[in-house]
Amino acid sequence: MKCFIILATLWLCFGLGFVGGQGLEKKSDTDPFSELPDTKLITVEYKFPYSFGGDMPAEEDSEKPRKSAQDVLESYGVSFPEGTSADIDRVRGVLVVTHTVKVFERIDEIIESILGGPQKQVFFELRILEMSREEAERVEELTKPDFKHDKAFQAAMELVETGKARIIAATSVIGRFGQRSKSETGEEVMTVEGFDWNETTGLLVPRFSARQCGLKLELDPVISGDDLSIDLSCALEYHYRAPVSDVMKISLGSGKEQEFAIHRFFVDRVER
C-alpha cells in the first residue's frame, strides 16, 4: 500500500517588500536588477507600506489633500519623466512603480526607510513524497519522542535518492507578515457545478466551471518581534489522483432520465 508524506522547509529572511515585476529577468540571487541596462524601463511591485502617505486615512478635520504615491517619491527626490509612474493598487495591497532600472536602487532605499528597515519574510518549500507504508512508518518513528524532524527529513530525502520514494508534487511560496500568499500548480478541468431547468425543452441544462487540479498552498505567517518564532497559518489542497470521468443519471419524472458526463475528484485538504 502506498502512503504520502508531506515535507516542508521554512527559512526566515529579511528584505524589501519586492513582490514582482514586468520586463524583469533575475540575473543574480541577491539583486533582481543586476546586469540589466540602466535605462531599461521596467515595472516593479512592492508590498504596500501603510505608513506611505498616499494611502494614509485623512483626518476628519484635516484640509490637506492626501499625497499620491508619486508625490511621496518625488518628495524624496525621485523625478518622473514621461513613461514612468507610481501608483497604489489598494485591491492587491501593492505599490506599483514603473521607472528605469537605475532609479530603482534609490526607490528601494526609500521604501526601506519608510518601512523602518528590511521586511521580515519567510520562504516556504513543500514537497509531497510517495512511498510504501513500511518506509513511511520508519520515517515517522524518527520524529519521536520530541517531534524534531531533522532526522526524518534527511531519511525521507535518502529514500528519494535511492529510488524507494518519489516526489510527486512540489511548490514554494514567499510569505510576508500580514499578507496571505498563494501558490497553485496543476491544470484546469471543466466540471459541472449545477443545473438549470429549460422550460421549452423540458431538459436540465448543466452549468460548467473550471476547477484547478493539482497542488494549492496558501500561507499567512506572523513573525515574532525577537525573530525566533513563527506562527504559521496555512492551507493545503492536493489532488492525489487524476479526476475520473463518470456518468450521472438524473430522473426527470414520468420515467424519463437524463445522462450527464461528470468528473469525480480525489482531494486531501489540510488547514491550521
Structure characterization notes:
The protein is α+β, with helices and mostly antiparallel strands and 272 residues long. The protein has two domains: 2-12 and 122-271, no CATH class; 17-117, no CATH class. The chain is built from four helices and eleven strands; from the N terminus they run E-E-E-H-E-E-H-E-H-H-E-E-E-E-E. The chain has helices at residues 69-75, 101-115, 133-141, 150-161; strands at 2-15, 18-22, 41-47, 85-89, 94-100, 119-132, 165-176, 181-198, 203-223, 230-253, 256-271. The strands form three sheets. Strands 2-3-5-4 form a four-stranded antiparallel β-sheet, with helices on one face. It is flat.
Name the overall outline: flat
Q: What is the SS-derived class?
A: alpha+beta
Which regions are unreliable across 5 or more consecutive residues at pLDDT < 50?
Answer: 15-36, 54-62
Run of helices and strands: EEEHEEHEHHEEEEE
Q: Tell me the number of strands.
A: 11
Strand order of the largest sheet: 2-3-5-4
Query: Radius of gyration over alpha carbons?
Result: 25 Å
Main beta sheet strand tally, sense and closure:
4 strands, antiparallel
Distance between the termini: 27 Å
Helix share, percent = 10-25%
Tell me the number of helical segments per DSSP (H or I, 4 or more residues long): 4
